[in-house]
Amino acid sequence: MIIRRATPSDHDDIWALVEPVFRAGETYPVARDISPEDGLAYWLAPEKTLFVAEDNSKLVGLYYIKPNTGGGGGHICNCGYITSVSERGKGIAKKLCAHSVVIAKESGYRGMQYNLVISTNFAAVNLWKKMGFKIVGTLPGVFNHPDKGDVDAFVMFQAL
Questions:
Q1: Which residues is 145 bridged to in the sheet?
Q2: Domain coordinates in residue numbering, the chain
Q3: pTM of the predicted model as reported, rounded to 2 decimal places
Q4: How far is CA 88 from CA 15, 60, 72, 96, in A?
Q5: Which of these, 76, 54, 80, lies nearest to 65 by C-alpha position?
């Protein structure tokens, strides 16, 4: 597997990875009926740098990295990750996270903050903990899960 910066030729494959996650509505705070144009705009926003993971010329995961905020908080980054539904459980998210930590350090960030890790996304919560992140806050009932109703979300942080 290789991880590289995304290019415009990846856009269709990016949407193919992102769409089922957005449509499920279980992990990202976007409208479940988001258009392909708006979904891609979310991932390709100018403040984000997007990386993709390829295995045998097939996109299997992606992540973005961006400043979490500006000004006095600009030394902290934020990331978002998606692994192909068909490729989950193969360690791709772990590799993407490890790559993002390296990129964050190389970019001069001194910490990583995940602002909205949905509490019912057990795989992500457990992986981020294994990768050194701590839950530093709980936001009660802030995410409307399509099956479970209002659920908590965590703010997770790691100093770099």
A1: 149
A2: 2-159
A3: 0.93
A4: 17, 9, 37, 12
A5: 80
> How far is it, in rounded angstroms, from Cα 52 to Cα 134?
25
pLDDT in tens, the chain (160 residues): 999 999 999 999 999 999 999 999 999 999 999 999 999 999 999 999 999 999 998 999 999 999 999 999 999 999 999 999 888 889 999 999 999 999 999 999 999 999 999 999 999 999 999 999 999 999 999 999 999 999 999 999 999 9
For residue 149, give the H/E element and its range. strand 149-159
**Superfamily for domain range 2-159:** Gcn5-related N-acetyltransferase (GNAT) (3.40.630.30)
- CA–CA distance, 104 with 101 (Å, rounded to integer): 5
Could you give the CA distance from residue 65 to residue 78 in angstroms, rounded to a whole number? 6
For the chain, give the number of residues.
160
Identify the CA nearest to 119 among candidates 153, 148, 72: 153
Indicate the burial class of 83 (C-beta count within 10 angstroms; 0-12, 13-18, 19 or more).
Answer: buried
**C-alpha to C-alpha distance for 63 and 97, rounded to whole angstroms:** 8
Cβ 88 vs Cβ 51: under 8 Å: no
